[in-house]
């Protein structure tokens, strides 16, 4: 019954999952309302209506030359002076905003009518346009009409391009040339129709329509927001799926639905119709007025109004659709909450039912009766769950309908439905699995009890006591086979029962394990997903699933182990009995088979061999015997195979131990011996028959060959048709030899086969005496006849072979003699033609000289070789002719073959001797001519070798033309050039030797030379001389290049090194005056001497002159190097190649580097010079400081020690008067020190203000020290004076206008800031001075 539940619920699941592709209502659909930004972001005409009504700025609708809209500032008299820049900005902003975006992008052309206005009235307009801060206003060009009184100053400003835009002042006539009159209004003498009052009224009407459209859209937006507020629970549902239904329950949703119905009353279509009528009237008025319909700006306004109407209509439709959509969402929300409540109740029921199921789900019973009772109880529980399946099916159907209606919560409904269906399927699967487990338990207990009850019956049947067949002491094969069949049937019955019990137990344990796992499987999907409502509870689980499984499986395993023990005992008994039965049957069968094999060998095999002992008297009879024996072997092969199988079976039977091994082995040995002897006799008989057939066959073939050879010898030597040719005779001789060899070999082989056959017959016991078939006599007679025939044929062949060989020798000599004679004549003609005919012209110095050498030497060598070869050939032919002539005279050959051979031989010998004498004379003349050609050609070879060395030298010069990039390459180039000079010295000696040889040949053999040879010698002399002179010129140029490059790189490297050392030396910070510790120890160093600094400055100036001269020298050597480089490249035509541009760039780079180093050295030299000057000034400053401090320490302190202040009150007044007079005198003397201190502080201030002074700290320290000591001294002097005046009673009131004290305290110098640097002008001035 539970299976029925799960099958029906799967249809609902398919229905739910199939709605995944349907569209659902969105949670928060977009409003689709778009506010018109025409009014909200731009000024309105109502805001600037007063300015527009005053004709301050106009947008008449005209276009400039490039399509730019025209903005005009008409002449309005004195009213223009009252308008400010802010008013202009507002009006221009408004006019720019009412044009189309395309016009705003390309910009505007402004025309200002300046007639009747002053420049002060026009200036705010230009300033407003110049600022460029007006949105959507891009000024391209400004035209100003000429005023009545021309502003000369303002025209100059405009001409200088004072403004960002192009400004131009034109008369009205000039303006008409720039802008078409049809685009200008009437106040600028144009023809453009423009009514400003109508334009302003229509602008106000258009903007009123647009404002109302925006207001209506705002109201629709408010309605949309209110509707959105009614469905805010959708957001809570979407983002908080775990929320409980009490937050947004059914009553809450019904309230929202009622409020949503009331909102529908606010969405009315009458307002839209009224606005459409208003816009329609405005559009009709614009289209009916020619001025408005032709104005481009009102074209853009028409488009705006049309878009506004379309936006209103679209918003109205969208709000209506949104209302319907929200109503649908509220209805679906109510349905969703009701569906979720029902599903939650079903989840609770399944949880309780599962708890009840888990009480005894693992109990499967201990017997057949108990398992049957559990099965009936579970059936009742499954039937009781059938009513709840109807409820589940109803909920799944409801979920399917909600999904088909495209519910907004389709995913949630589908999820809940899937959870419900999955929960029901899991519960139903548990019921089904429990049903299967109990069914398998009933079957298992029934089969197990049946097997245990059958064991006492099967055990006696498997006992060994039943091995002997009842009623037979020695059973036959039939009884044994019947007992084995019955024994096998008993085993199959036992195995069948055991297999049923075992397979049922395995199925039961598997299903029980599956049931325990499924029942204790947690809801992974419910625990991992978002918590939703309704939320299914986690399934109740067992506390110990392993223990539950062991409780049910332990009894099954115990029963299986008991049955397994019984089955193993029965199987062991059955196997012992089976083995004994099969062994007895095998022994019986083995004995019968051995008997059959021995009977066949005795009755058939031995009879056949005794009957057939002969081999036949001829070939046909021997083949008949052979075929009969082959048929017998085929028949006997089956017996041999059976014997082998029986021997193998005997070994197995002996090893089993059931039968007597000695008995079995005795029978096997007897069988093996009989079969082995019989096989050997059959093989021997087969071999004898094969030899007989082979002998008779070869005897017939060899006899036929000998008769054929004799017949062919007679036919080949029959020359009645004429004298045969040499080739035919040689072919006949070769064929005769081949036939003789093959026939002789066949005859010998046949005789050997006959001898072997006789030996084999003797081996089998047959002799000539006991041979009744006559085989021995036939074989011996055949061998004697064959041997006699072979000797006769060989004797006849030897006689004929001697005659043919003599004839062949004479024919070969005749052929060779004729051939040599013809060759002598032909060679004599060739030598005569070569000696008397024109010679091939020499190749000269530039031709293929090596080919001429080889050709000329080969001609001479060929001539000598040919002469020797021909002489040897003639000598051999003459000698062989004499031998053949002697052989013909001494022998008596057959007249038919050698008729007339002696006379023919004598005539050929005489002709050959005469031809040889003529050839010797002609060959000697030819040899002398060829030797002279060889000498000339060798001279050409030597000349070419010299010229090749010269070309190699030129190639070396060209290959080594790697203009050096550094000193190492220059030195390497000098070394290569030195090697080259050594090489050309050897070439010079070879060239002189070649020229001397040519002149010697030209003068010594002048009478024996022909014109081509003489011309060749002259060409050799001229070519070698010209090439050598060219090489010498190239070598001189290269030497200059090497020297120049070496000088340049050496000079550049040395100069760069000197500059680097000077730069490092000049950059090193030094205290030239030796007063670095003055500021630290607060003591003036005595080493500061004034006479050292002038010497340092003078030496520094000399270093500058020296390195400048070195730089100049490096530039001169670079010019020389580049000059020779250019000449070398021009000589080899490599001036424009890219591979040779590197050195020039390298030289330029070195010069630039040298220049940069020179500049850096000059810069650091200047800095060092400045530091030297600072040290010189510091030395002078220190000397002055020492003088002041010495005076203060000596004269000043001595005066103050002689006039102590502490003693003034105790001295008499006359002494005080005297001290006062001394004070006045001393103050007069101290004025010089005061001036010196003042000058010293001014000098310190000057030194500190110069900046970058290494003595800044020392100067500041000593200036402060002098200042402090002098101030202290001055104060003490003033105090002394005041005390003296007070002692004398002199009271003088000092007025503000009184002069300062005679010893004023000089101001302390202020050091310059750390980062202060002299400006560029001072630095350049200082460098110019230096």
UniProtKB/TrEMBL annotation:
Name the segments for region: Disordered.
1293-1330
Q: Which residues form a coiled coil?
A: 1216-1243
Please provide the record's keywords in A-Z order: Coiled coil, Guanine-nucleotide releasing factor
Record's keyword annotation contains Lipid biosynthesis: no
What are the BP-aspect GO terms?
Answer: axon guidance
Q: Which InterPro entries match?
A: CRAL-TRIO_dom, KALRN/TRIO-like_spectrin, RhoGEF_Guanine_NuclExch_SF, Spectrin/alpha-actinin, Spectrin_repeat
Q: Which Gene3D superfamilies match?
A: 1.20.58.60
Chain intervals with Pro residues compositional bias = 1302-1315
Matching entries from Pfam families are given as: Spectrin (PF00435), Spectrin_6 (PF23323)
Q: Does the keyword Calcium apply?
A: no
SMART domains in the cross-refs: SEC14 (SM00516), SPEC (SM00150)
Q: What is this protein called?
A: Triple functional domain protein
